[in-house]
DNA sequence: CTAGGGTTAG
């Protein structure tokens, strides 16, 4: 029956799959939400009519709902499984676990996973392991993931390189680089070979803490184990050198790359441009940007943002603004960093009216301000105390938590306005907000 | 035969 309707469901499903994949496309996906009840309805109908629906189709539908952050609908499909005489399988549960994580329901995801084991709902496989470990790491529960990894090692479903890499990366990002190094040793002990990605995370972690010698040793280890360095590896090094002010060394890294017949990509050049901008070598940065098209590389919005920042830092706000205007002509969209950088530049040049106009444009374009944007704005408001405090409330309403810089800016403004008493009260109130003053006033 | 995952850089 109803081959047409079945076809329609398949179509809906396929459209979803295409739509959902990327974070940026979430909004787009939501626009298409309306079609889901249709899909559900059709499924319901098909079940009623006794049309054979296979479990593949139901798993696809479940996945679509999950990717749209509608894991509850995913669970509803679970009912259809039984109605249609199917048992949900490991794919179904993996999909649902992922869906719970995507919906920030970490506890429930863990619960479902434990249920799988205790109630033997299905035999977990390597996808289950990776889904749970990945979900925990992304939710910031690195240590839970770490412990779980240790548990899995003792069972028959061994974690493999992706699971280890994820945990190692999270440990590094959470500043537990030594633990990450130990985990590397352990995975090798367990017969799992780390790959370039695994090492890249560690190199980055070590560089972030200025552990150059350790990073160097690790790279030697990579070479010894015949694990090739890739564009990521080199970019990490370029970035690390630049951030430490060693631009010459960063240039050398790019040089080495080319000697090894590897083409630096957009990220590599952007990183170097950012480095030049940070140390004030703005002309070199500009030359590099202009050379990119000739190398077949299209500068990204981040490339432009870095250079705009460089011009602003040099006090060349006019030049920064010219570049800012070029961005749309290149078919690129401003992001929150571009706007905030330009805003900061205008304010520091005393061009407050233009800054506020830019902020309005940002809102029109529906680019969501972040903490840095708000701090920049507060700084720009200067002595306009009432406006500053109302902005403070706006940011809290938007769910953006003020940090120590926010209050530093506010206190600075209060002092300049001669409201020393208010400033002092605000300062003394910081510890109760869980903030530690970092400078003496 | 069809479905679920997938780690790193600006």
TrEMBL record:
Organism: Sesamum angolense
Xref: NCBIfam families: PPR
PANTHER family tied to this protein: MITOCHONDRIAL GROUP I INTRON SPLICING FACTOR CCM1, TETRATRICOPEPTIDE REPEAT (TPR)-LIKE SUPERFAMILY PROTEIN
Positions of PPR repeats: 125-159, 160-194, 195-229, 230-264, 265-299, 300-334, 335-369, 403-437
Highest taxon listed in the record's lineage: Eukaryota
Family from the record: Belongs to the PPR family. P subfamily.
Listed Pfam families: PPR_1, PPR_2
Annotated keywords: Repeat
Protein name: Pentatricopeptide repeat-containing protein, mitochondrial
Signal peptide: none
């Amino acid at each position: 029956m109803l081959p047409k309707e079945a076809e329609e469901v398949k179509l809906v499903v396929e459209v979803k799959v295409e739509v959902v994949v990327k974070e940026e496309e979430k909004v787009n996906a939501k626009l298409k939400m309306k079609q889901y009840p249709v899909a559900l309805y059709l499924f319901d109908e098909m079940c009623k009519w006794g049309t054979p629906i296979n479990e593949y189709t139901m798993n696809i539908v479940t996945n679509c709902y999950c990717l749209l952050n509608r894991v509850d609908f995913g669970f509803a499909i679970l009912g259809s499984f039984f109605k249609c005489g199917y048992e949900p399988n490991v794919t179904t549960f993996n999909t649902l676990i992922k869906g719970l994580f995507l919906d920030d329901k970490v506890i429930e995801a863990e619960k479902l996973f434990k249920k799988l084991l205790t109630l033997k709902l299905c035999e977990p496989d390597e996808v289950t392991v990776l889904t749970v470990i990945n979900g925990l790491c992304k939710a910031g529960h690195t240590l839970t993931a770490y412990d779980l990894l240790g548990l899995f090692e003792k069972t028959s479903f061994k974690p493999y390189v992706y699971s280890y890499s994820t945990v190692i990366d999270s440990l590094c990002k959470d500043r537990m680089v030594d633990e990450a190094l130990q985990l590397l040793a352990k995975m090798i002990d367990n017969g799992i070979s780390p790959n370039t990605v695994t090492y890249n995370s560690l190199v980055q972690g070590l560089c972030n803490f200025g552990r150059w010698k350790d990073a160097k040793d690790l790279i030697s280890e990579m070479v010894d184990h015949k694990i090739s360095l890739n564009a990521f590896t080199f970019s990490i090094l370029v970035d690390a050198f630049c951030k430490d002010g060693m631009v010459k060394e960063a240039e050398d890294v790019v040089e080495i790359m080319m000697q090894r017949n590897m083409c630096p990509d957009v990220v590599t050049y952007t990183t170097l441009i950012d480095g030049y901008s940070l140390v004030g070598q703005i002309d070199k940065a500009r030359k590099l940007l202009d050379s990119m098209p000739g190398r077949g590389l299209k500068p990204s919005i981040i490339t432009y943002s870095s250079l705009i920042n460089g011009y602003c830092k040099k006090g060349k706000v006019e030049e920064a603004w010219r570049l800012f205007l070029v961005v749309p002509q290149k078919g690129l969209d401003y992001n929150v960093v571009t706007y905030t950088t330009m805003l900061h530049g205008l304010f520091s040049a005393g061009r407050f009216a233009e800054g506020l106009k830019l902020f309005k444009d940002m809102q029109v374009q529906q680019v969501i301000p972040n903490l840095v944007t708000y701090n920049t704005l507060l700084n720009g408001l200067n002595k306009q105390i009432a406006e500053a405090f109302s902005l403070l409330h706006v940011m809290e309403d938007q769910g953006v938590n003020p940090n120590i810089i926010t209050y530093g800016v506010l206190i600075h403004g209060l002092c300049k306005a001669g409201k020393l008493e208010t400033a002092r009260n605000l300062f003394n109130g910081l510890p109760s907000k869980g903030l530690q003053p970092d400078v003496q006033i």
